[in-house]
Write a structure and sequence with these properties.
2 domains; alpha+beta; 14 helices; 447 residues; 5-stranded antiparallel β-sheet; MetI-like fold; 3-stranded mixed β-sheet; 9% strand; elongated
């Protein structure tokens, strides 16, 4: 039988042995290995954040303490408020549209034989830098339809349904029988049946004349009708040609609309033939001939994509072009893990493809969609390159965002205090989104 002393010794718990790290190394050795990374993290992340926080509390030259004046400027300065408003638009629409397109592309290409090739093409813009993408879309959105792809397509569609005028720059020359009238031109005197009328114009370059034009011909009088000619009254060469009458080398204004107007009412109208000749009935007797403004309407030049009203949506479109492929790849990876038996069971039960997509596919992809959306939200909060490159100088104030305003305040306007305040404000905007993402990832791990 053990003695009381021996029993007391046996009851005392043994001292715990010092724990070793998983790799078997001491903590000091592990800390030495981590030290370079910690130094870099402190130099590249912690120090800039701390310095920006301190600098945001000082005035422009750093000589005086400004308190929270720089932060007040964020909500009172017009340019910063515009940037803040545009950032809200970016955060609401850019991630949502990119994620939605990525989801559509991933689902629709799942069963297509050439789906992989399509995904490669959609993802390809991710290989392009923001600088290059900005230059590309600056050209795409160019106002000139001969340069900008967007306006070339838009003008082509418009001209298919609404034909543009072929004579936008035509106007009366010297000693012309025409005078201006409501954007068009009208004869100074009235016209009568059995007589010919000449309506000479100038101002259209020979290479800009429409297709179907022919050599201008002097109209012949016709009893009971009014005849005439409208043509380009210009002949190359010094002193060559007769003013006010068609010459052999001059071209007729094919398709020019002519109206007979009496007391402000159009009593007859016609269009000129290829050689510029036209004929009006006897009802036009005693009227004035008018070339309406529709003949001289300037050609449709497309949409001002980079104007004040459309510049932000246009730049968001270029961002979606780049990042929809990123969203598609991540969503396609999540889609590959969706149990196929659930989808097939729903189809067997009579669910349509839309019901399967809305009630099964999307809910199962919710975690992936959240990752993509949150990632893009963080990304658009700091968007700078596309706005700086695509928006022209005249519209840059309207397309302004916080990151661009930070650059302008800090480097162009010499206000580093306000620039630092904007940087801290951007950090505060990103932190809640990051915390939400971290909490969501932890919940996923616990499942």
């Amino acid at each position: 039988m053990a003695s009381p002393a021996t029993a007391g010794v046996a009851a005392t718990p043994a001292a715990p042995k010092p724990r070793k790290s998983v790799t078997g190394t001491r903590r000091t050795v592990a800390a030495l290995f981590l030290l370079p990374a910690l130094v870099l993290l402190g130099a590249l992340v912690v120090y800039p954040i701390g310095y920006s926080l301190i600098r945001s509390l000082y005035n422009a030259d750093g000589s005086g303490f400004a308190g929270f004046d720089n932060y007040k400027a964020i909500f009172t300065d017009d340019s910063i408020r515009t940037a803040l408003k545009n950032n809200v638009i970016w955060v609401v629409f850019a991630p949502a549209v990119s994620t939605a397109l990525g989801l559509v592309f991933a689902v629709l290409t799942e069963r297509v034989r050439w789906g992989t090739a399509f995904k490669l093409v959609v993802f390809m813009p991710m290989a392009i830098s923001m600088l290059a993408a900005g230059i590309i879309f600056r050209l795409v959105y160019d106002q000139d339809p001969d340069k900008g792809v967007a306006n070339a397509v838009w003008v082509g569609i418009h001209d298919t349904f609404a034909q543009s005028s072929a004579f936008p720059n035509a106007h009366p020359g010297r000693e012309s029988p025409l005078e201006p009238d409501q954007g068009g031109f009208i004869t100074k005197a009235t016209v009568h049946t059995g007589r010919t009328v000449t309506l000479p114009l100038v101002g259209v370059a020979p290479d800009q004349m429409p297709d179907g034009v022919e050599k201008a011909v002097a109209a012949k009088p016709d009893p009971g009708k009014i005849t005439g000619t409208t043509w380009q009254d210009f002949t190359r060469g010094k002193g060559v040609g007769r003013l006010g009458s068609p010459d052999p080398s001059e071209l007729g204004y094919s398709g020019m609309r002519i109206e007979a107007v009496r007391n402000g009412v159009v009593v007859a109208s016609t269009k000129a033939a290829g050689d510029g000749t036209f004929t009006l009935p006897a009802s036009a007797d005693g009227a004035q001939l008018r070339l309406p403004a529709s003949n001289f309407k300037q050609p449709y030049n497309g949409v001002d994509w980079l104007g004040p009203s459309l510049v932000t949506p246009a730049i968001i479109g270029s961002y979606v072009w780049m990042w929809a492929g990123f969203a598609m790849v991540l969503i396609a990876a999540g889609l590959a893990g969706v149990p196929r038996e659930l989808l097939e069971a729903a189809r067997v039960d009579g669910a349509t493809e839309w019901q399967v997509f809305r009630k099964i596919t999307v809910p199962l992809l919710a975690p992936v969609l959240a990752v993509v959306t949150v990632t893009l939200m963080i990304n658009v909060l700091k968007v700078f390159d596309l706005v700086y490159i695509i928006a022209p100088g005249s519209s840059q104030d309207d397309a302004n965002v916080l990151a661009l305003e930070l650059y302008r305040k800090g480097f162009s306007e010499g206000q580093p205090g306000i620039a630092s305040a904007i940087a801290v404000f951007l950090l505060l905007l990103v932190i809640p989104v990051m915390l939400f993402n971290v909490r969501r990832l932890r919940r996923e791990e616990r499942r």
